[in-house]
């Protein structure tokens, strides 16, 4: 691993987990809409938590290594706000939505939030 910085390695893991989270959530959302029993399997319930834990740990590590704290860098604060919204909508999309229509609407809202997170991460706008 000569020539690879710790920051670059953590960033790569973080980006990989972000993509895995998006794909995992998208697949589980499709299964929810299809009312598939695959949504109830043990691996389907465990793997997203592992991915999201690594994603969060690498995010915290990147913030600490780079000294880009949400109170100093506003695009990071925006990502955190969108993350909270994504978690809320995602929870209603996959578990807590009272009807399929509510779950579908929350699924779309969660996808919009995660798309916003990706956009902010790529563009890094100044607000």
Beta-strand share of residues: under 5%
* Poorly predicted residue ranges: none
Total number of domains: 1
Main beta sheet strand tally, sense and closure: none
H and E string: HHHH
Broad structural category: mainly alpha
Oligomer: single chain
- How far is it from the N-terminal to the C-terminal residue, by CA? 37 Å
The chain-level mean pLDDT equals 93
Percent helix range: over 70%
Strand count: 0
Report the principal-axis shape: globular
Based on CA atoms alone, the radius of gyration comes out at: 16 Å
The number of distinct helices, counting runs of at least 4 residues, comes to: 4
Textual characterization of the structure:
This protein has helices at 6-34, 42-66, 74-96, 100-123. The longest helix is centred in the N-terminal third of the chain and has 29 residues, at 6-34. The protein is globular, with a radius of gyration of 16 Å. The relative contact order is 0.13. The chain has one domain. The mean pLDDT is 93. Helix content is 80%, strand content 0%. It is mainly α and 127 residues long.
